[in-house]
Design goal:
Subcellular location (chain B): Membrane
Radius of gyration of chain A: 35 Å
Helix content of chain A: 55-70%
Signal peptide (chain B): 1-22
Oligomer: heterodimer
Radius of gyration of chain B: 16 Å
Helix content of chain B: 55-70%
Protein name (chain B): Immediate early response 3-interacting protein 1
Number of helices of chain B: 3
Strand content of chain A: under 5%
Largest sheet of chain B: none
Organism (chain B): Bicyclus anynana (Squinting bush brown butterfly)
Pfam families (chain B): Yos1
Number of strands of chain A: 2
Number of domains of chain B: 1
Shape of chain B: elongated
C-alpha cells in the first residue's frame, strides 16, 4: 500500500504531508527523552513537501530520521542538543545533563500548573469557593457574641442583617450574619466530646470516633436533603441560600455540646434541663433570624406567570396554593424550628449514661 | 444508628424505587401520567405536579449512574457481607 509510485503524480501537498506523518510515526525510533513525543518531529517535516517526482515513493531520501532539528517554534525544546538519536544504553548518561533536567523541571512545572488550574476549575463548579470564603470571615468577638446569642437570644433586638450594596455584610461586621465557622468547629467538638463521654462509660474504642463522626455527617446530609426537597416540592420561593441553611442547621451543635456538658456536670437532670433551655433558645433564635431571611424573599402574591394566557385563576383557591406564598414559608420556618431541637435530642441521647437518663424518669 | 454507609444504602434503595415506577403501566393508571393533555391548564405549582416533576427528572438523570452504583454495591456486599 505504500509503494504506489504510478498513482499519485500531481497529488496535493497536504495529502503527501499526511503520509509523511504516518511513516514517521511508524518508522522513526522513539526519541529518548520521553517528554518529547514524535508529534513535533512530524509537524516539522510536514511543512516541507518533497519534490513532486518523488510523491509516489514513501521513503524519501530527503527525510532523515536521525537528526532532530528544533524548528524554533517549540518553546521548551529550544536548547535541545544536536546530538544524534542515542541508543537506549546512553539514555542514563543523557538524563544527567543539566539541560535535560531543566527541561524536565519546566515541563513538570507546566504540568503542575495545568493540573492545579484544572482542579480549581472543577472544584469551583461544585462548590462556590468565593461564596464559601464569606462564611469563614469571622473574628473572635463575633464568635463570642454569636455563641452568647444562640444561648440567650431574648435580649437581642435588632435581627436584620446589614447589607452593603446588595450583598450581605461579612459575619465579622454583623452578629446577625450566618457563618460556617461555628458549625464546623461545633461538629468537631461534638465528635471529640462524644468520644470523651463514651470513654467515661467504658464504651470507647478508636472506631467510635469515626462512627460518631460519620453518623453526625450523615444526619447533616439527611437534614439538608430534607429541607431542600421540602423547599422544592412546596415551591417556596425564598432568598435563603443552601449554605445559609447549612449554617443555621449547624448552630444546633452548640446546643448539643452544652447539653452534653450539663449531663457531665449534673447527670440526667442537668442533661434534660440544659437541653430544654437551650432548645428553646435555639428555636427562638432561628425563628427570629429566619423570619427575616425567609420572608424577605420576593413574595409576589399577585403574579402567576405559569398560567396560560386567558386563564382565570381559581378565586376559591386558598392561600396555600399560591406559589411562594407567605403561609408556606411560615410553615417551613416552624418545621425547621421544630426539627432542630428534636435532632439535638436524638443525637445526644445515646451518649448520656443510661443510668442517668433513667433516674429522672423513675423519680 | 445512621452512618454514612446506611445513608448511602437507603438512598440507593429509594432511588431504585423511584426509577422502577413505570410510566405507562402504572403512573398513567393512577392519574400521575406526565403526558396528559390537561396538564397545561392545571396549576403548575401544586405539590402533586412538583413531586411528579421531581420523579421524572430523577428517573431521567439517574437511570444510567444507578446501574453502575447498583453493580458496585452488589459486588461490595458480596465480597464484604
Amino acid at each position: 500500500m505504500n509503494f504506489n509510485a504510478s498513482r499519485n503524480v500531481g497529488a496535493g501537498g497536504p495529502r503527501k504531508a499526511k503520509r509523511v506523518v504516518d511513516v514517521n510515526a511508524m518508522g522513526a525510533p522513539a526519541p529518548a527523552p520521553s517528554f518529547s513525543p514524535s508529534a513535533p518531529y512530524n509537524t516539522g517535516y510536514a511543512q516541507s513537501p518533497p519534490p513532486p517526482y518523488q510523491q509516489g515513493i514513501q521513503l524519501d531520501g530527503g527525510q532523515e530520521f536521525g537528526t532532530p532539528e528544533p524548528a524554533g517554534n517549540f518553546g521548551f525544546m529550544g536548547g535541545y542538543p544536536q546530538s544524534p538519536m542515542p541508543a537506549p544504553g546512553n539514555i542514563g548518561a543523557m538524563l544527567h545533563q543539566p539541560i535535560v533536567q531543566d527541561m524536565a523541571m519546566q515541563y513538570g512545572n507546566a504540568l503542575a500548573a495545568q493540573g492545579r488550574e484544572a482542579v480549581q476549575r472543577e472544584l469551583g463548579r461544585f462548590v462556590a469557593v468565593s461564596r464559601l470564603r464569606y462564611y469563614f470571615a469571622v473574628d473572635t468577638s463575633y464568635v463570642l457574641r454569636k455563641l452568647l446569642l444562640i444561648l440567650f437570644p431574648y435580649r437581642h433586638s435588632e435581627w436584620m442583617v446589614k447589607y452593603d450594596q446588595e450583598t450581605p455584610v461579612q459575619p465579622r461586621y454583623d452578629v446577625n450574619a450566618p457563618d460556617l465557622y461555628i458549625p464546623s468547629m461545633g461538629y468537631v467538638t461534638y465528635v471529640l466530646l462524644a468520644g470523651f463521654m463514651l470513654g467515661l462509660q467504658h464504651r470507647f474504642s478508636p472506631e467510635q470516633i469515626s462512627i460518631q463522626a460519620s453518623s453526625a455527617l450523615a444526619y447533616i446530609i439527611f437534614e439538608m436533603v430534607l429541607y431542600l426537597v421540602t423547599l422544592y416540592i412546596t415551591s417556596t420561593g425564598t432568598a435563603l441560600k443552601t449554605l445559609d441553611l447549612l449554617a443555621f442547621s449547624g448552630y444546633k451543635y452548640t446546643v448539643m455540646i452544652v447539653s452534653l456538658l450539663g449531663a457531665l456536670a449534673l447527670g440526667g437532670v442537668g442533661y434534660y434541663c440544659c437541653l430544654a433551655y437551650c432548645s428553646a433558645g435555639l428555636s427562638y433564635f432561628l425563628v427570629k433570624t429566619l423570619r427575616l431571611q425567609l420572608l424577605a424573599g420576593s413574595p409576589q402574591p399577585a403574579e402567576q406567570p405559569s398560567y396560560s394566557y386567558g386563564y382565570q385563576p381559581n378565586p376559591y383557591a386558598e392561600q396555600w396554593s399560591k406559589p411562594g406564598g407567605t403561609k408556606r414559608r411560615v410553615y417551613f420556618l416552624l418545621f425547621v424550628a421544630l426539627t432542630q431541637p428534636l435532632l439535638c435530642w436524638w443525637l445526644t441521647r445515646h451518649l448520656v449514661p443510661a443510668a442517668a437518663l433513667a433516674a429522672p424518669v423513675a423519680t | 444508628m445512621l452512618t454514612l454507609w446506611n445513608l448511602f444504602e437507603a438512598s440507593l434503595l429509594c432511588l431504585n424505587a423511584v426509577c422502577v415506577l413505570h410510566e405507562e403501566r402504572f403512573m398513567q393508571k393512577m392519574g400521575w401520567g406526565a403526558n396528559t393533555q390537561n396538564q397545561g391548564f392545571e396549576d403548575q405549582s401544586s405539590i402533586k405536579f412538583q413531586i411528579l416533576n421531581l420523579v421524572r427528572s430523577i428517573r431521567t438523570v439517574t437511570r444510567i449512574p444507578l446501574i453502575i452504583l447498583n453493580i458496585l454495591t452488589i459486588i461490595f456486599k458480596l465480597l464484604l457481607g
